[in-house]
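lol forgot to send this yesterday, sorry. C-alpha cells for the thing we talked abt
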C-alpha cells in the first residue's frame, strides 16, 4: 500500500490504516528505537509513535509516512534517553553529541531551524554514499561497525569519512555565519 493511501485511511480514522502502518513500518521503527533504547523501552516507544501518528493525522498530511513516523519515533526515543538517569542508556547520545560538538555552535542559537536548514542543505549536496553514512550515523545513531557492514567500507574509512564530513560541515556553518 502506498503512503498516500495509508495516510488517507488514517485521515478517515480507519483502524485498518493503523494496522497497515504497523505492518509496513513497525519493524523499521523498532530498529530505529533500539538504536537508542533497550528492546522493551523501544517497543513502548514504537507504540507511542503509532498513537502520535494517529493523533497528528489530521491535521498533518505527510507525503512520506515513514519519514514522518521515523522522526516522531526518533524524537520519542531521544526524549526517553534524556529523561533516563542511567549512563548506559545515554552512552550513544553522548558519543554522537561529542562528535558533532566540533562543528555545531556551542553558543545558544536563537533559531534552531537555521541550523537544521543549513545541515539539510549541506547533506543534500553530498554524494549519495556520504549522505547515507552521515544520516545513518547522526540521525539514526548507527555505530561505526554497522556502517562498515552496510557499506562495505572498513571502519577506519568510515571514521575518516565522518571526520572529514564534520570538518566540512563546520566550514559550511562558518560560511553561513552560524558557527562562531
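and heres what i got for the seq, position by position
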Amino acid at each position: 500500500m502506498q503512503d498516500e493511501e495509508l495516510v488517507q485511511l488514517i485521515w478517515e480514522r480507519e483502524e485498518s490504516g493503523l494496522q497497515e502502518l504497523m505492518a509496513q513500518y513497525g519493524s523499521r521503527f523498532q530498529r530505529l528505537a533500539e538504536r537508542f533504547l533497550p528492546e522493551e523501552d523501544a517497543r513502548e516507544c514504537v507504540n507511542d509513535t503509532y498513537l502520535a501518528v494517529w493523533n497528528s493525522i489530521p491535521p498533518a498530511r505527510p507525503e512520506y509516512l515513514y519519514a514522518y513516523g521515523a522522526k516522531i519515533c526518533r524524537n520519542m526515543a531521544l526524549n526517553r534517553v534524556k529523561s533516563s538517569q542511567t549512563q548506559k542508556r545515554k552512552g550513544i547520545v553522548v558519543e554522537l553529541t561529542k562528535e558533532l560538538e566540533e562543528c555545531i555552535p556551542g553558543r545558544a542559537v536563537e533559531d534552531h531551524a537555521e541550523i537544521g536548514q543549513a545541515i539539510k542543505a549541506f547533506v543534500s549536496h553530498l554524494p549519495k554514499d556520504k549522505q547515507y553514512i552521515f544520516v545513518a550515523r547522526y540521525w539514526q545513531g548507527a555505530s561505526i561497525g554497522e556502517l562498515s557492514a552496510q557499506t562495505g567500507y572498513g571502519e577506519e574509512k568510515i571514521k575518516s569519512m565522518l571526520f572529514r564530513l564534520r570538518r566540512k560541515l563546520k566550514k559550511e556553518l562558518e560560511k553561513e555565519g552560524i558557527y562562531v
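Residues 30 and 158 are 25 Å apart (CA to CA). anyway ping me if u want another try
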